């Protein structure tokens, strides 16, 4: 006997209600009062995560990943998932929140294993970056990782994920040389949107590829 | 008689208080109830901007800009400003919210004129991107713009800004070939943080420059 497959349907929003700040569990709204450069009193409204691990001092990691195969072109694995804030499927690099006691590198390896299923090697860690500094205090690090596949391991055949209950994450493998064009194509599909960080990385690659010689990059 | 210069001091946060959702003017907290892919009821907490222009359907634009000078290397202008959500100075590309009735292109030209002081030409507009899709519904477009400087115009001599009251924005010009390294250096300074979108664009450029040949980019 096998477990019957779970039914799959389009996610459907049933209600959107104002959330009192005191009732919010994951995020909060705060008002910052400050003196600006001229000494004038000003205020700013900010959304913050309530989950930042004190050990790392950083909310989240995203895994810029390179899949290396002996005979296939270098590729990267993206995740596509329904994101209620946008009522759309987003295309992103795998990412996740850093747990208490973890370093960014440890969180990257753990989250990559959970979302993608492969063991990866960390090859670089960025400085702390401000996720959306006009709106929120959220911050993150970009951790570059590599997965070295064996001759028999095909990039199209993905390993088993270790997802938490309620996570529905589709994985797609894209050759790095096609990344920018594929993101543009995803953006044209209905109910799909590419995350800004991934799009900017790919746009930077494309910019260097097409304008690098002219602009001395 | 001249107006006495405004005194300059380090911005100072005087209080941070919980902001009731009903009192917030710029952003809001909402609870989304939805049915997931298996039909299971779930909830998600989201921060949203209250200012999205219905005409564009997009919150904001960032201006990826190229300064072209007859004899100097291609460069880009960055803005450094105090961001209360992070209690730090952020390094970003110029950016701003789209006003009602404006297109993304119009907002880009207007904001670039206000923050930087130069007239720019739009050379490309990205698809809509999700600013921080796990946390907020905020979205944006990356508008690539060019400024063609004359032989006599030096990039180091910046034109007059047209800032709104309370805006204190420092501009720095960086050759495109040095952008990534300069962002890494800014990240190492005290009380400074680079915005994730700009950092990712520069990291993508650097990735293509250093790994492009090896990875077929």
From TrEMBL, chains A, B:
SUPFAM superfamilies reported for this sequence: Nudix
Keyword hit for Metal-binding: no
Ranges of residues in domain Nudix hydrolase: 58-196
UniProt keyword annotation of Hydrolase present: yes
Domain of life of the native organism: Eukaryota
GO MF term list: ADP-ribose diphosphatase activity
Gene Ontology biological-process annotations: nucleoside phosphate metabolic process; ribose phosphate metabolic process
Key words of the record: Hydrolase
Cited InterPro entries: NUDIX_hydrolase-like_dom_sf (IPR015797), NUDIX_hydrolase_CS (IPR020084), NUDIX_hydrolase_dom (IPR000086)
GO cellular component, one term: nucleus
Transmembrane annotation, as ranges: none
Signal peptide feature range: none
PANTHER family: ADP-RIBOSE DIPHOSPHATASE (PTHR11839:SF26), UDP/ADP-SUGAR PYROPHOSPHATASE (PTHR11839)
Protein name as annotated: NUDIX hydrolase domain-like protein
Species: Parachaetomium inaequale
């Amino acid at each position: 006997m096998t477990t019957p497959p779970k039914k799959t349907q389009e996610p459907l929003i049933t209600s959107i209600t104002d959330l009192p700040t005191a009732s919010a569990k994951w995020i909060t709204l705060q008002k910052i009062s400050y003196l600006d450069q001229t000494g004038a009193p000003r205020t700013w409204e900010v959304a913050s995560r309530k989950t930042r691990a004190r050990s790392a001092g950083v909310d989240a990691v995203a895994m810029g990943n390179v899949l290396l195969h002996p005979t296939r072109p270098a590729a990267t694995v993206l995740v596509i998932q329904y994101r209620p804030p946008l009522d759309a499927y987003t295309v992103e690099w795998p990412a996740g929140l850093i747990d208490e006691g973890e370093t960014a590198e440890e969180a990257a390896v753990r989250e990559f294993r959970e979302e993608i299923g492969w063991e990866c090697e960390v090859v670089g860690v960025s400085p702390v970056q401000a996720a959306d500094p006009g709106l929120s205090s959220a911050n993150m690090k970009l951790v570059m990782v590599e997965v070295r596949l064996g001759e028999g391991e095909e990039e199209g055949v993905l390993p088993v994920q270790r997802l938490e209950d309620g996570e529905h994450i589709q994985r797609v493998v894209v050759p790095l040389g096609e990344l920018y064009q594929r993101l543009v194509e995803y953006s044209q599909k209905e109910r799909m949107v590419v995350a800004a960080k991934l799009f900017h990385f790919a746009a930077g690659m494309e910019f260097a590829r097409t304008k690098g010689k002219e602009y001395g990059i």
